[in-house]
Amino acid sequence: MSRASERAYNNIRSMILSGELQPGSQIREEALAELCGVSRTPVRDSLRRLEAEMFIRRNDSQRSFVADWSLDDLEDAFQLRAMLEAHAAKRAASRITREQLGQLRFHNAQLKQAIDMPNPDVPKFLDHNRQFHAIILAAAASERLTNMLAQVTEQPVVLRTARHYDLENLRRSHHDHDELLIAFDKRDGAWAAAVMTGHIRRAFHAYAEAHSTDTEIRKSKLAA
Amino acid sequence: MSRASERAYNNIRSMILSGELQPGSQIREEALAELCGVSRTPVRDSLRRLEAEMFIRRNDSQRSFVADWSLDDLEDAFQLRAMLEAHAAKRAASRITREQLGQLRFHNAQLKQAIDMPNPDVPKFLDHNRQFHAIILAAAASERLTNMLAQVTEQPVVLRTARHYDLENLRRSHHDHDELLIAFDKRDGAWAAAVMTGHIRRAFHAYAEAHSTDTEIRKSKLAA
DNA sequence: TGGCAGCTTATTGTATACAAATGGCATTCG
DNA sequence: CGAATGCCATTTGTATACAATAAGCTGCCA
Question: Does domain B71-223 have CATH number 1.20.120.530?
């Protein structure tokens, strides 16, 4: 993707993810074009992409709105994600290389280190967590699967902080990763898939809690 | 989608599916624009969409090519499709209405009729088959799932005729549908999912055979 | 007062012109 | 003779102007 187009896409996407563009609010191409410092053309490209990724919806007369996810939508996305990531884990179990296993161990050690200290370094945890999952996906070796997972991995919820600072959850995540490592080591795809399913389901419940809180807050703001 | 854009998308897509645009061949925006009788703008929209759907790939310098699927790619797509359709069947089992069940029965009866005659009406079979699956997807009630399935359902293989005229396969499909109906009737999601998995796996093997033949033919044409 | 018609304005869709980047070819130099 | 470099042709990216369409408003009529 070229410069202007990429900038527009990343800008708009992060504005949605961060909540700067409020769920449900209308989107005007020209306004975004000005915000991003590009013309409407690359903005339109980005909107189309984001629409495919379901971050944006359009009504029947082609106007765009920031997607407003219900709890059901969120669960739906997570259900698909759990299924796809479990599938990735299963595929990875029979394909992963010694080197990739080593990388997984490295990142899991790092993310443990990030939270096993008086002042937990959550961004560091998240970064190594992301890389951990990326390596599994790479080992699964399915471009289609990668594309599909990208569509359900990022959630447009503002209050992700709530989840991130729940240390108990982070520790459990680390533990799941450890178990995944053993399953991979034993080339046990079924086990890896099962662990991964639980791993993602837990994430869902953490998100769901944050989402409810967020929705409550937004509702009371509207009422005020 | 508006007129010009929609026309361009459908035209290009069907040119790819029909093989009119050969796998691996380069695509030039302006040439397609002329073919479709529109400007480059809607053509570019369409190309982006088709790229997301993996019908088109781009090299690192942004040039577009018609996707050329290996047998592995095909299997990969079918594996995902089997998983997603099984998931749809499972969800449908607990949500499907009496009315939808009736529609399923109707379409399955129709598609049986289409092949239970001296001169089988394959297009009719395919149409009712499509509707049968569409109803299940609707009963599954997940927009995301619907979108994802759309991405792996159509296969850019020319020789689909080979499969379509294998009556034995078509009869087995009908039988699978029958079994699905019973599973739905009993609200047995696990059973429905299992039947659907087998249903799609069989389709894969039929496709794979046609694909191999097709690839052989293309290779020998290149050699000549 | 309520609703509908027609106009006005806002917004998106399409075409086109121009800019940027890439690939291929030819020429030149080692 | 082969490889590297610079130029030209081709192709894609971006901006902008204009067309089409939909929404909202105003005023009229029942």
Answer: yes
